[in-house]
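#lab-general

N.A. 3:47 PM
ok so I finally got the sequence cleaned up, no stray characters, all 143 residues accounted for. can someone with queue access submit it? mine expired

B.Y. 3:52 PM
send it over

N.A. 3:53 PM
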Amino acid sequence: MEEIIVIRAVDPDENMFQAIMDALHGRSVQVIEATSSVLSFGDVKIYPAYRRVLKAGEEIHLNHGEYSMLYCLAKSPGRVFTRDQLYASAWDTDQHFGSNTVENTICRLRNKLEPDPRHPQYIKTVIGTGYKLVIPEKPVKEF
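B.Y. 4:20 PM
back already:
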C-alpha cells in the first residue's frame, strides 16, 4: 500500500492543489482534513493572509479602503454595518475625510466585484443604516 503525505501549503489560486489532484487521477484519494482561510461569495475569493482578492480567477486590485471594507463585510455576511463602522474598519478612526467616503468606496467595490453594479446582488444598501454583504443561496437542482 502506497501512502502519500500532503504538506500544508499556501495555494491562493488553487493551482498547486489542482496539479496534485491531476497527478492522482485514477487513484484512491481520501481527503482527511481541509481547512481554508478563504472568504468567498459568488465568483469572488478573498485571501486575508495576503490581502488578495480574485474574481473568476483574476486578481482584482483594491486600495486600502476598498479591501478593508470588503473584508469587514465578508467576515460577517448578512450583518448590517453602519457607515461609521465601515469607515472605522478602513481607517481605524472616527474622523471622516469626506462625507461620501464610504458611499464612494462601496460604489468602487460594486464596480469591481458585482456582475451588474447598478443592481448589486452582493453588497446591498440597507436604507437609513448602512451596508451588508449578501451571499445568495445556490439553487437546488431537482431530479
